[in-house]
Write a structure and sequence with these properties.
The complex is a heterodimer.
Chain A (H helix, E strand, L loop, with lengths): L4 H4 L2 H46 L2 H16 L2 H15 L6 H27 L2 H9 L4 H31 L11 H12 L2 H30 L7
Chain B lengths: L1 H19 L6 E6 L2 E2 L3 E3 L5 E2 L1 H13 L2 E6 L5 H6 L5 E2 L7 H6 L1 E2 L4 E3 L1 E6 L6 H4 L4 E6 L3 H11 L5 E6 L2 H10 L4 E5 H10 L2 E6 L5 E3 L2 E2 L4 H16 L1 H10 L2
Parallel strand pairs in B: 1-5, 1-6, 10-11, 10-12
Antiparallel strand pairs in B: 2-3, 3-4, 6-15, 7-15, 8-14, 9-12, 9-13
The chains are: A mainly alpha, B alpha/beta.
């Protein structure tokens, strides 16, 4: 292809573009981290409730959880983002920032997935655990909070770290709403400097680093909270 | 069952809402497509900059209101205006009849023509570009995308339109050789020429368009302020200074 090669080899300009953009992109990584933390925490809180409801709830609660999971796992993230940002919140006349809506939607979706992680973990515990707790005179609520969940959550950490890396990567889609996270910033700088490849490459590396740090941290947590002598 | 989910979601949102509703101080928000140099982009430090950004800053100062610039995706910019995420759009928006039904425009401040951008060493003519099933790039949601579909492709011109998120991405694919040309406004095309091995081939039959700022239908007061401000700006020496700085 004529005229292609002579432009690609000019590496210096690319490095300068990356160097100049780095502080701006790093600031974006803070936004990304905020987005992911918000979403993961919302997903954690709601996911636990949904999982407990799914396992121990009655018929009605179970089907509510079922519909919730079915809905949020079944609709694409981008569709949900637009639906909530331009649709639902505007309809309700609630003016939320793009960041809040993105964190909320990512969290609601993550809750659906996390509920399935926790549900699996709860079901993997020996049935005797719950019965024993009840036999000791603990209430249902106490048995779940103090016997079942502490074990189930420990078991969930590997799958949870998987969910973390998925939410992290999904968060890049938030740029469609104008959230100034890493991808949006890389895109803006690329438009100004016409250094598309170096900037998307940099953004990709930054996502990789965040994934690595998060999964390593969770791996560390898993070892730290492991119950000694408890085989699984 | 759907109702239960909905009420559940609403309760949840209400909880989030309590913590996030911000104080209502009157700062107008200008939504910009930051992928549209030289009219709107973000500078090295991530601060919105560009011909339109600086124009609005000047007008705000003269007319005594506050304004911030919010970079966002072009696709969602009119929905954002209508749903009050932003208050105005000063980001190289062409005035069209269709858009006039949705928003109110200020007086025009710039005349723009649409051109085809090709690789520097291309020997094709405009007619050759728009034939033989060639691939031509364009930014999604723009007037040129709409015009090309309605006036060229539907009238039998044999080429394929490839839609991109931004004009610079289309230029990137021109350089990569995936598409033979990109259709875009002449100002960003000139910007591309300064940064990439491409040239402007020429116009392709689309009429010239006016750029103006857009506001919500009901915001008559803001419209008046912007119109007065624009008139003052275009009569001020600063207008020439802006043109010299940003070379639109």
């Amino acid at each position: 292809m004529p005229g292609v090669g002579d432009h690609v080899v000019d590496m210096t300009e690319s490095f300068i573009a990356i160097r100049d953009a780095l502080p701006y992109l790093l600031h974006g990584s803070m936004v990304t981290i905020g987005l992911v933390c918000g979403a993961m925490l919302l997903g954690l809180a709601l996911g636990i409730v949904l999982a407990v409801g799914h396992v121990y709830g009655g018929q009605v609660i179970r089907s509510v959880v079922g519909v919730y999971v079915w809905f949020f796992r079944g609709v694409p993230l981008l569709v949900l983002l637009f639906l909530f940002y331009f649709g639902l919140f505007s309809f309700l006349n609630i003016n939320l920032s793009a960041f809040t809506v993105a964190a909320l939607v990512l969290g609601l979706i993550s809750a659906a997935y996390q509920s399935q992680i926790f549900r699996g973990a709860i079901l993997s515990l020996p049935e005797g655990q719950f019965k024993a707790a009840r036999a000791l005179g603990m209430s249902d609520r106490k048995s779940i909070c103090y016997i079942i969940l502490p074990q189930a959550l420990r078991l969930s950490i590997p799958a949870w770290s998987n969910e973390y890396s998925i939410v992290l990567k999904d968060s890049a889609v938030a740029y469609a709403l104008g959230v100034m996270e890493m991808m949006a910033r890389a895109h803006f700088v690329a438009s100004r400097t016409y250094e598309h490849f170096p900037l998307y490459f940099t953004a990709g590396v930054m996502f990789l680093i965040l994934t690595y740090l998060g999964t390593r941290g969770l791996g560390f947590l898993e070892k730290k909270v492991r119950i000694p002598g408890y085989a699984r | 069952m759907g109702k239960k989910i909905l009420s559940f979601v609403i309760v949840l949102m209400a909880v989030v809402l309590v913590t996030t509703v911000s104080a209502k101080d009157k700062v107008y928000i200008n939504g910009i497509d930051a992928n549209f140099p030289p009219f709107a982009y973000v500078d090295k430090n991530g601060v919105p900059d560009g011909f339109d950004v600086k124009s609005v800053d000047w007008i705000a100062e003269k007319m005594g209101f506050k304004v911030t610039h919010k970079p966002m995706d072009w696709d969602g910019i009119i929905p954002s205006l209508k749903t009050r995420k932003i208050d105005l759009i000063a980001s190289g928006m062409s005035v069209t009849d269709k858009r006039k039904q949705e928003v109110n425009f200020t007086i025009p401040y710039w005349v723009i023509s649409q051109v085809l951008v090709v690789p520097k060493d291309s020997t094709l003519t405009v007619d050759q570009v728009l034939s033989k099933g060639n691939k031509v790039g364009v930014q999604r949601g723009t007037t040129e995308a709409k015009w090309m579909k309605e006036n060229l492709i539907q009238k039998g011109k044999n080429f394929n339109l490839r839609e991109y998120d931004s004009a610079p991405l289309a230029v990137e694919d021109v350089v990569n050789g995936r598409i033979v040309a990109a259709a875009m406004d002449d100002a960003p095309a000139k910007d591309a020429m300064r940064k990439k091995p491409v040239k402007i081939l020429g116009t392709f039959g689309m009429h010239e368009e006016n750029f103006a700022y857009a506001v919500r239908k009901e915001d008559a007061e803001l419209l008046k302020m912007l119109n007065e401000g624009l008139e003052k700006l275009m009569a001020d020496p600063y207008w020439e200074e802006l043109k010299a700085t940003y070379k639109p």
